[in-house]
Batch of 2 targets.
Target 1
Amino acid sequence: MAGTGRNGDTKVVTLSDVARLAGVSVATASKALNGRSQVAARTRARVEAAAEQLSFVPNRMAQGLLAGRTGTVGLLTSDLQGRFVIPILMGAEDAFGAGRVSVFLCDAREDTIREQHHLQALLSRRVDGLIVVGSRTDPRSTLGHDIPVPVVYVYAPSDDAGDLSLVPDNVAAGRIAVEHLVACGRRKIAHVSGDPGYAAALDRGVGVGEGLDAAGLKLVGDSMYADWSERWGRDASAVLLDRHPDIDAIVCGSDQIARGALDAVRDRGRVVPDDVAVIGFDNWEPMVEGSRPELTSIDPNLELLGRAAAQRVFAALDGDELGDGVHLQAPRLVIRGSTVPRS
Amino acid sequence: MAGTGRNGDTKVVTLSDVARLAGVSVATASKALNGRSQVAARTRARVEAAAEQLSFVPNRMAQGLLAGRTGTVGLLTSDLQGRFVIPILMGAEDAFGAGRVSVFLCDAREDTIREQHHLQALLSRRVDGLIVVGSRTDPRSTLGHDIPVPVVYVYAPSDDAGDLSLVPDNVAAGRIAVEHLVACGRRKIAHVSGDPGYAAALDRGVGVGEGLDAAGLKLVGDSMYADWSERWGRDASAVLLDRHPDIDAIVCGSDQIARGALDAVRDRGRVVPDDVAVIGFDNWEPMVEGSRPELTSIDPNLELLGRAAAQRVFAALDGDELGDGVHLQAPRLVIRGSTVPRS
DNA sequence: CTGTTAGCGCGTTCAA
DNA sequence: TTGAACGCGCTAACAG
């Protein structure tokens, strides 16, 4: 199977190579390989054998030239770390068989100029659709409506209500976190979150408030907002625990903050989860699985978001309405040892 | 600028649309837009105005059909988390202006079948080259030599010496770690690493040994290999510290292990870095910057790896030899508070 | 059943 | 200086 030459030596084989080897015209070869019915069985077999022998791979770009579709999607992101975009990419790939559609991934790095360049590049390559992934859940400026392909905004919604946006439901996430703590018997719940300039921080905070209201509880101390770091999680939790020694649970705005909270609790000689339960957001594996104990967290279900985005794009290509407005993806509670004692 | 319709309404404009609006032939329009000299200045201006007005974007796939190049690279990975592949992708993008070349990212998820599907998909889209990114530094099976485009293996080398592989120099990384600790005055150095089935673990261990030899030192206790988790870092460090209370430094096989080591040291009432210095590998930001104190680490310079890979691919397209064998990328020491006291 | 013709969007000859 | 004609690789119409 493997040739002896280096990569790049072997010339790309075309349909006409196959046709010549099989002794038929290119049209017949095309029909044979595409499973059209109007081909003699023997001829089809000859063509298929020839294609196999030459390891022929049809040029999808040439096909796309005719069909008006390239089987290609652009994923335009500014998520430097890939934390959000990778699950979304995988969800998009899953929405179809592997290889049926390929994904261009471009990182704009929060730079509008660079984003425009990438957008041009993607359109010039005639992507069938575009998925725009932000690095935070705050609205971002729309790409505009004069784009000739369907566009779906994921994670960060578009600021234009005419666009379709798919985002995690952070309010529900906050509510679910509190409901879980209450179900575990916690009554003295505190809240430490990240940068208050982020919608994610505020939305989760709103959900926390709703959850407390529903349980007839009041937050212990004030919600603490500063930044998304472990250090802040430690410092803020330390203050809260010292001022309110009766705290029996801390809702944290992210898994990193939660890790800081775990440290603060342990520094004070108290035990998680027996004395104080801790819950985070994001369900970011390296964070939640490395901690001691492992961290209960709210998973935003990003794969589902990516899968839904891809499905919407391709449904739109098939003539369906793309739809508009901001659609919320329900989160999922993942329980680990930081809220429920484990063996 | 923005149209009033929804996305997808506006038809894709072609060169002939531009030519018609400008009142010239497509050939002339093509020359005008591509900066060919044989066009009257006034004609060129008319064509450019028409292109602008219609916001014409040339179809690079049609161009590619002629040129034999698509300005497209395939990135075939099995790095589920995106830890390695994202920096490599960014390096590859940087190797050219943003948008000059676009990158298809495919995740094979350690599955050979899926990898073959993606490979076919990429070749059918006529990528100009292929970058294969593994999730560990152990050799992986070659894609073969009958691929019609240049292939570069990154992070995980190919098991075929005829292929070109670009990988981090883990032996050097281990050596540099020890050299740094020795330079900080440490003499009683222990070693905790990850899964001994990983070349990365063993290679770094070899480097640690070389560094110790060069300094005339012996490892305190045995190298501890198990897995890449924080938990293991804690447990192994605890054993070492209890059996060898004079340990003044721990070299850890990853940042996660190092975080576990930090916990173990603190649990014993000892201070990092004053009593015990700790150093990790990977320089993975959320890990190194969240810890207390921040973690000194060895950065494998993945962006440079990605950039180099992209450059090799495109140099090969321009006729240069692709080259072969395994090439090592030198790592970089990043000093933080876990080895040198900080204000 | 098969082959010929046409054309997808573009760049590059070559005549005019 | 411009435009008509050709071909990149492929598929869809038709004619044979």
Target 2
Amino acid sequence: MARHLITSALPYINGIKHLGNLVGSQLPADLYARYLRGRGHEVMFICATDEHGTPAELAAAKTGEPVAEYCRRMHAEQSKLAEGFGLSFDHYGRSSSPQNHRLTQHFAGRLDAAGLIREVSEKQVYSNEDGRFLPDRYIEGTCPNCGYEKARGDQCENCTKQLDPTDLIDPRSAISGSTDLEVRETKHLFLRQSAMRDRIAEWIDSKTDWPVLTTSIAKKWLFDGDGLQDRGITRDLDWGVPVQKGDQAWPGMEGKVFYVWFDAPIEYIGATAEWAEAQGGDWERWWRTDKGAEDVTYTQFMGKDNVPFHTLGFPVTIMGSGEPWKLVDYIKSFNYLTYDGGQFSTSQGRGVFMDDALDLLPADYWRWWLLSHAPESGDSEFTWENFQQSVNKDLADVLGNFVSRVTKFCRSKFGEAVPDGAAWGDAERELASAITRRVRAYEAQMDRMEIRKAAAELRAIWVLGNEYLQAAAPWATFKEDPDRAAMQVRLGLNLIGLYAVLSAPFLPFTAARLREAMNSSAAWPDDVDAALTALPPGHAFTVPDNLFAKITDDQRDEWSERFSGVRG
RNA sequence: GGGCCUGUAGCUCAAUGGUCAGAGCAGGGCGCUCAUAACGCCUUGGUUGGGGGUUCAAGUCCCUCCGGGCCUACCA
């Protein structure tokens, strides 16, 4: 039994996430966590909401709530949706937790002691009317290059030229529209990532088995241009972790908070500490290699936009602390899911969001489609037609109908108990060995986190059941040799029990229904032959209702129309 | 501008430089009747974006052109 620490990139608190966000981190992380638990390993699966930063403050201002209250409410909402999708976090924390405050301040203190923090005085735009400093992209104005009137302070979207906010003609606040702006001097802390460049580069170089997507992004940031740059880790905001060195004040930094990208990854640790406090466990044995974490395998899941923070910033924090914190062992990164030819868009309400999805269909439909089409090698596209076809075929026809035909046939000929009868023949032994090969391949793909390939193997295992049934034809056998038909049906029923276990990482809700209907165990089929005889003659079961209703053409058309843009 | 990824069957995707480039879906034919008009078997379909090169051998390596996507450090 191994110990696995799994973290999913933290979803930002600002609003409900869409399916692209879901498939990029939380869902595959859940798949892996469920699989490893199924194999009997000890798993700590951590996620949390990322609650700090300007967008959270603005979103709260918009609803008129204090930001802390807004975050509390949105956290509850995201938790509920996570539960609805069956995301099996051991703890779903909050980056605003006291645990994270303490840890973030602790790391900052350690980094400062190691000489990895420097103070920088810089000029930033302050909006008098908004009463806050404005991040570059919250300043709008006319582009000096092309004359576009809605250029942002960091870049003009029209001509793609990189800008400095002070370049803008007629600058104004993107928040209030106020032109009462001034440039003020402000002091910030910078993390000296440049000083750690060689160490990080060496570390990345040693990760030859990581996805190319992960290492290529890391190397780009390490070596492009002048190489890895130092980054500001503080902001002039109210909402966040106050800047301190451990529990000591940080002279000159009063009223400032740490920047989200600094405190957010630390919340992986913070959330584990939250878990410990809530459950009464020991979080350090997951995170401190001097306190029991030396045998932990740590895997992170994230979308490609998060890779720089996890390959550079967070490791600099961890390594730079000089303390024996657990460093990530494998970073599984994903491309984007696109929606019907374009991007999912939160602002335009384009695409399907987590709450919409659960209103439409049970979670397992979404889980199956998203995971079996995970954007691993490139961006992948969601279309309603593809979704309808895949789900109807894979879930309703291949898996659902298999369960239906076996259980209903048994009920009509033998009743709702596993029938006694003849012993296995060649066909059954061949099936068992074919399934064994497939199960071992499935495990291998899951171990490698090859998600689409794992889904294909699982589907192939379902197909084997239909092939067997077709060849064995118990409905025909029954007429001349009921004893043999009973054996064939018994094997079919046992296949359902096996499918429940194997499918659980992808389809946890369906798997639970199957286990309940079959009264079968959740034990992983290390020995497939044994698993296929686990339900003995006389074992009672019930015929489940059809597992998956098909998506009709009318539904598909209606949904396609409804989610094309402008969310109501 | 620079960098990275990507282009393979109608669609979605596979293929450590090594048999005839494979699956699933869709299409066509046949079979079955237990089952959600489901299942099974067979089958059509590719000049691997174009061109050039290296090699005994290229989807795979190199060059070039064309198309798509992403990143480029103050959104997170």
